[in-house]
């Protein structure tokens, strides 16, 4: 049985009742039937903030592209372990990779951040091409991925919600700019907020869309 579009993973009767009530509230706060509306609802639920729907940005056709990548079994590639663990293992055959932990020698030799070096190392292995790139924490990972896209790397879609006061908003803006120029669809937000939980939630919604009939959005 396929999960409902915004399945919260509840397994008990009480849990399911709470999940249903929560989804009803979010549906009232974020109306609409397009794929982008679904992603906005997911963002609002993940953050607990109705205003977050207005911070979301979609460039290209990212929801459909991301769902198609899930259907094809393309891998998820996260910046750190938190979003990787937050992406469900159900209802898809996609592998998972994490930039953190790769390229340690490069980081030390070149004075790079560990996530920056990890993105470079995985990209040199061809991991990012056709992948579902998910960045929830590190602005340096987002900036580095933008550079790699500019140099020829082509993920199927990028979901980027790195959080923080230093370069977070700028890194997402850079990804939107580069993605638009080179035809890589992106799902991002504006402002300082974001995080790994939000990135994982948006990635999970791509999985839900992939398991349903295609709808217009």
Strand content: 5-15%
The total count of strands amounts to 6
Helix content: 40-55%
Biggest sheet record: 6 strands, mixed
Overall geometric form? globular
Say which CATH homologous superfamily is assigned: Cobalamin biosynthesis CobH/CbiC, precorrin-8X methylmutase
Radius of gyration from CA coordinates: 17 Å
Please state the structural category: alpha/beta
CATH architecture: 3-Layer(aba) Sandwich
Number of domains: 1
Q: How are the strands of the biggest sheet laid out side by side? A: 1-6-5-4-2-3
Report the CATH C-level class: Alpha Beta
| CATH topology grouping | Rossmann fold
What is the average per-residue confidence, as pLDDT, rounded to a whole number? 91
Order of helices and strands: HHEHEHEHHEHEHEH
Number of helices: 9
What can you tell me about this protein's structure?
- By secondary structure, this protein is α/β, with parallel strands linked by helices.
- It has 9 helices and 6 strands, in the order H-H-E-H-E-H-E-H-H-E-H-E-H-E-H.
- It has helices at 13-29, 35-47, 62-71, 81-86, 104-110, 114-124, 139-150, 168-182, 196-210, and strands at residues 56-59, 76-78, 96-98, 132-135, 157-160, 186-189.
- The relative contact order is 0.19.
- The model is unreliable at 1-6 (pLDDT under 50).
Write the layout of secondary structure elements.
Elements: H1 13-29, H2 35-47, E1 56-59, H3 62-71, E2 76-78, H4 81-86, E3 96-98, H5 104-110, H6 114-124, E4 132-135, H7 139-150, E5 157-160, H8 168-182, E6 186-189, H9 196-210
Parallel strand pairs: 2-3, 2-4, 4-5, 5-6
Antiparallel strand pairs: 1-6
Helix pairs in contact: 1-2, 2-9, 3-9, 6-7, 7-8
């Amino acid at each position: 049985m396929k999960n409902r579009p915004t399945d919260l993973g509840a397994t008990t009767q009480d849990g399911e009742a709470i999940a249903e009530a929560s989804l009803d509230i979010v549906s009232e706060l974020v109306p609409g039937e397009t794929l982008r509306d679904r992603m906005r609802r997911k963002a609002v639920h993940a953050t607990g903030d109705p205003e977050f729907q207005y911070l979301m940005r979609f460039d290209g056709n990212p929801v459909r592209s991301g769902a198609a990548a899930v259907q094809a079994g393309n891998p998820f590639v996260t910046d750190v372990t938190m979003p990787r663990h937050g992406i469900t293992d159900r209802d898809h055959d996609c592998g998972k990779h994490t930039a953190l932990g790769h390229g340690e020698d490069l980081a030390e030799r070149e004075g790079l951040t560990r996530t920056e070096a990890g993105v470079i190392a995985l990209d040199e292995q061809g991991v990012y091409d056709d992948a579902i790139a998910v960045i929830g924490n590190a602005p340096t990972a987002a900036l580095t991925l933008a550079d790699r896209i500019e140099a020829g790397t082509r993920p199927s879609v990028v979901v980027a919600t790195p959080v923080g006061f230093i370069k977070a908003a700028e890194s997402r803006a850079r990804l939107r700019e580069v993605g638009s120029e080179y035809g890589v669809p992106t799902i991002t937000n504006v402002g300082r907020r974001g995080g790994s939980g939000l990135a994982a939630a948006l990635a999970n919604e791509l999985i839900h869309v992939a398991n349903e009939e295609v709808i217009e959005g």
